[in-house]
Amino acid sequence: MSTHRQSSTAVRGAVAALSLFAASAYTQTTANTPGQPARNDAPIGQFEIVGNSMVSAQQMFLGTEDKVYIIDKTEANPQKVNGHPAWASEFSVSQKGGRTMDIVTNTFCAGGSALGNGTWLNVGGNMAVTTGGATADNQNTGGQPYEDPDGAKSIRLLKPCDDGNCQWAMQQPMTTRRWYPTLETLEDGSVIILGGCQWGGFVNDANQNNPTWEIWPPKDNDAPVNSDILQNSLPANLFPLTWLLPSGKLFVNSNWKTSFLDYKNKQETPIDDMIEAVRVYPASGGTAMLPLTPANGYTATILFCGGNDLQPDKWTTDWDIAQYKASTSCVNISPDVKTSYNQDDPLPEGRSMGNLILLPNGKVLCLNGAETGVAGYGPQDWAVGESYADNAILTPVIYDPNAPAGSRWSREGLTASTIPRMYHSSATLLPDGSVLVSGSNPHADYTVQGVKFPTEYRVEYFYPSYYNERRPQPQGLLKQLSYGGPYFNVSLTHDDLAGDVNNIKNTEVILLRTGFSTHTMNMGQRFLQLNSTYTGNADGSGVLHVSQVPPNPALFAPGPALLFVVVNGVPSVGVQVMVGSGQIGEQPTNAAVALPDANIIAAGNNGASSGSSAQGNQGHNTSAAGGLRDSLTARSALFVSGLLSLTVLASLL
What we know:
By secondary structure, the protein is mainly beta. The chain has a six-stranded antiparallel sheet, with no helix packed on it. The N terminus and C terminus are likely disordered.
């Protein structure tokens, strides 16, 4: 039998199988094709003041592609809602303004995260207060002038919207008080709530410690579970730093101590202590899990930068902590591989309260914070106004995890902000790849006169280096991603690939959850590169063959996220997608379908492959039969993505 006849027989068999495969592919709904940002003349590497947050942005998260939700504590903000000062708002990214929202009970230093069904959860807070943050006489009603009740047991839910009609809703309260709790979304889309204290103060103490964790929604009426690490890491154990690991265990860092938490079996295992500096509040180092990629085997590595080296007996307010130098130290740990910390490139200056924001190009933006002092405020005569920190750092710096050791931090092309972002600042990535920055309020109540660091409402956008570039406009992105199962195909035009089909070799599909930003953390922030191969076409266009999320929900918990296609470091505008079933509960998983080999069809070679290959593939046969097979791969990809009909495909055989 001739080579051509053998190939034709194989091709016809493939068409039959392909038609069955396509039936499942067509049931998947595609997202709208992302366009270009609203402008291409942004001040690159700079901050731009764009609007007013209406309430000070102590807590903040991206809820839809256009709406950022902001939460403050109970205080005398000038903006009103329902006859009282507003303590929450909705900010439109496109309109650079928005509306105030009513949020009930004092949300001061609450935690938050997204549930697996797309609803956002805000948990805990502090006692009811009056003017100046003084404790209210009536904790049930709050009393004058704010009449906002005690929030320490509160559960608040929001389903984000774009029509202006969504509101925060109260749920059955917790059985225990939590001020400064940490939240992390789990594999089934529920959320674990860890730690906190009962009544407040600069740091925690044994008389008010809440060294427990619980899961929401609660299961089988489970009571809060005691935690050894939270019991034994006083006084700096508030907002314990917590990540769900690919192994399914939780990594927990509190003060100098670190543990694994096997929440399913309610067991903790201590591992090596943190080195060089405390990273949790109020030392408030910047933290982020670095990108999970096929190249690193989806190994979780967590980066910690800044904070300070105070020992437990030094967390007092009888000395001038505002002038104590923050640490330059950065360390990392890959806890599923090795349970000890490693030194990383240090920051260019010490920094407390610096946010680490994951960018879609895989780099990490560090911004906000101060060179001396810690998070917190109080009436001491050494405080800067009321701030426990001084010497604001206005210039950001970018970390490149792929750069050689010794050259990972860079300020090239970056310009300082004009706004100090001190205690109670926040930041979040936006779908267009810019970063929204707001907040700063180291005061017990609204204070704008006669202080170095006033209550801040100005909103800034920061524009990374890629912002003004022509963005890819991928077609075929899915609205909902599964854990394993059939791959999907994303088409890119000649222009999307910047005029060179070979750029498809350096194209990635990125899933990024921006997280819940508060107190230097972005709870739940995570970056995962989907596995992919490609077919580059002779006309300069191309198709990406993209795997679903790996069939392990612990890698990337279910819920909303942004999906980007990044060509040579330039991201598309992100589209919001749902990861998983869209429901809270055990997530279905399936084996990942193998991807086609990567190839580029050379112009004028009758569809023959150029022989290029992608990670994980074995190269390509460039014989006539191999070329026909690779040509089929490209056309099959177009068929599955809806760009080529089965009739036309069959006619090509």
